[in-house]
Specification:
By secondary structure, the protein is α+β, with helices and mostly antiparallel strands. It has 15 helices and 23 strands.
Amino acid sequence: MSSTFSLADLANSGRNPALPFELVLPGGGTLRIERLLRVLPGRRYVGVGVWKKHGVERQVLAKLIVGAKAERDLAREKRGSALLAEQGMDTPALLEDFFSAGEGGGVLFEYLEGAQSLGERWKECESASDGDEVRTRIVYDALRAVAALHLKGLWQEDLHPDNLLYQGGRLRLVDAGGIRAETPGLPLDPEKVLENLGVFFAQLPSKIEASLQKWLEVYAKINPSCRARLDLRALRASIDRARRRRIRDFLKKTRRDCSLFRVEKSGPFGAFGFCAVRRDDADALARILADPDAFIARGHIYKTGGTATVARVEDGGRAFVVKRYNIKNFRHWIGRFWRPSRASTSWREGNRLVALGIPTAKPMAMIERRWLGLRGTAFLITECLEGRDIMACFRDEPAAGAPALEVGVCALRELFAALRRERIAHGDFKGSNLIWQGGETRGSWALIDLDAMRVVASASGFARATARDRDRLLRNWPEDSPLFRALNESIPPNADEEN
């Protein structure tokens, strides 16, 4: 049985309106929303439903737009959809639009049954044996679609992998609200092309940048109008700018209530506590978040005493790692209460690595206990990585599931290159903080224990910090060991030598 809503009711329904619900549309017809795909509370509700008008039912993708900016946002959706259609772009058809002053409105698009986003397909092939080949095809298909868009004087302001959908062998453009135009029908200015390509490539793992010249050539074959001005250095600069913006915006979200994270504060402005959790993991972690100390007490202790206690805990058939940052005494508290907790640092930097595609244990939740805003004990909850650390992988006798020496060394070089590219210093490269994820011939090193991780802005400061990381890594083995020699030769002491 579905509830009957008005657009005004929807605006006040929060993040989780009861499903299914039905709207009586201005101008006639009804819309029954059966599932929601994206929610911006009090502003936008995107879902799949059944539109009924003149006795005919049809499945649609509905964007319901409410709030103070509804009229403006609706106009952008209609304008973007019209631009795509006028220029012959492959995009879902706009079937209906409606608006009611003071309440809001919406647009109904053709529903693409069985469609899969470019981002979803990319994730699927990450662990596949032919993953590199599939990813190459994905980027090729995406660039063809983007180049065709630019050739018509259009660009997608929020160009990311989930705004390109595969359906029946076709790659289709969605999210018309982000479509912008320079001069419709005429090729886009090369500077705008580079800016928009920067937005696209910034969403993909950094290692793909090794093939940028090839991708520029692929793009130029579709849109030769700006071939002479597609400069590789300028594109790299555009990617760097877009990635910095993206990471900055993403890290802000990790500390506020949004579609990705659930944030709860105890007392005014979090005076008595702060908790952030990935929204998708909130239900699975509910019992642990309620009493992390109890789970630590009955979990498998990796480390105890001093400034931190680390335990492997289980709940609901899943394993997690809970790290408690202890306050040893009053003097220790005096030195800690005014600074961001180490849990907060690890939460931020873990999410940074995830966003950059650098392997780490996924951060799932962070808790700070506070008293009148003064920080005390804090907790970090991450996924539990299965795998051996680098010391166990490279003992005298080969370990089962450990990488071959050359595979492990190559993966370490790639890890250092990624960290140096992003100016990230880990701060503690002891062997137990590197966990192998993969098999004997393929895999990567995941970084854990991110308490001391930081981004270093100055070139000189970063050179010193990354040199310390390299030296700490090498100190895990005697200087006369084969692994020491292999790493010493493979990982350049100077970050500039990576390229």
